[in-house]
Amino acid sequence: MLKIDRRIRKSQEALKKAVIELMLEKDFDQITIQDIADRADVSRRTLYLHYTDKFDLLDKLIEEHISNIREICESSDDAAGYTEMGLVWFEYFETHSMFFSVLLGSKGSVFFRGRFLEFFLGELEKDNSLSGGSDKDSANIRNVDIQFLGSAIVGVVEWWFKNGQPLPPDVMAQRIGNLLERNLEAR
Amino acid sequence: MLKIDRRIRKSQEALKKAVIELMLEKDFDQITIQDIADRADVSRRTLYLHYTDKFDLLDKLIEEHISNIREICESSDDAAGYTEMGLVWFEYFETHSMFFSVLLGSKGSVFFRGRFLEFFLGELEKDNSLSGGSDKDSANIRNVDIQFLGSAIVGVVEWWFKNGQPLPPDVMAQRIGNLLERNLEAR
DNA sequence: CTGATTCTGTGCATTAATTCACGACTTCAA
DNA sequence: TTGAAGTCGTGAATTAATGCACAGAATCAG
């Protein structure tokens, strides 16, 4: 854990917060660099010290969240069931609900949705409950299953945010846990 | 209106916010420079760039508020009645209620209370309804009246904050306005 | 009292952020 | 089509903030 300069952390956090807030108000295309800098209360020049453009800023923000979720998964990996795993997911989603609401709800969300799905596919890859044979056909069948479950999870998360998080994280985790167990262990 | 460097404004605002927050939690004596810097998320060194010590920080914060109120008074001075004047006061108090709650509520408030009273005495000095003669006796009588009304106002504001602002600003302004009119014009 | 610990105020070298200015590019209305 | 206004990305000089280290003062427990 290397120590990061306070100023860098504050500038980046302000910029990340700013872009999310602005995406809540208007389309990503409509947001200018100046908008972001103003909202972050930071010089326009400072943004360029950290990011090449607004796309880079959004990319890095997305990668950071994906990376956080991955770390959370790995740290709470000790023989945790699917329900427990789902709980840490949904708790993370809730903590950063502004980010996920914006990026799963708005029009420009296509890129993030893909990145999000990709993450879950990677997690499912690791799951040994889904180990088919090593021949070509059974490998593809395994891929079908992975795509099936990954899309299902992403779809549920999207639904959750688009409907204003109508159920608490623990209930969501319980239900997702049940659904995953049914599909992963009964084979 | 000279432009102040963004970094200076942010550092000072963070430090001022921090010291108020901390005074809500513990006695001013118990607060260390490190506490303030940590809460403000700023280097300890930065505090010394702007203030000589924590007392200086608190002093400047107090002076700033007094100065703000004075400016507000002057700008809305155009033939405004006592009720109108009281309204801008109480609206300001409400906007900065954390500051006033802390500094009129805590033990270490003695200094601020004095400074606050001093301000109102100055405002009352300006009031021509309170113009006695120029001889020694009537000047002293005038001072009695000023002390009387100044203490009354401060007392009411103290009461308002110690009781969690039980009445809205406009009601407070109305009542204070009535009381001042009764005492200032009926002579 | 005494030793340990924390807090304070400061010097110093380094790094980040800011302001300002500039030319190129885009947008959009006249 | 042209001109005005806004945006972008960058260079350069300046200023503010940081991290670190240190010595002296204050605080506190044994």
Automatic annotation (TrEMBL), chains A, B:
Q: Where is the HTH tetR-type domain?
A: 9-69
* PROSITE patterns named among the record's database cross-references: HTH_TETR_2
Keyword terms: DNA-binding
DNA-binding region extent: 32-51
Pfam families from the xrefs? TetR_C_8, TetR_N
Name of the molecule in the record: AcrR family transcriptional regulator
What is the protein's species of origin? Answer: Paenibacillus silagei
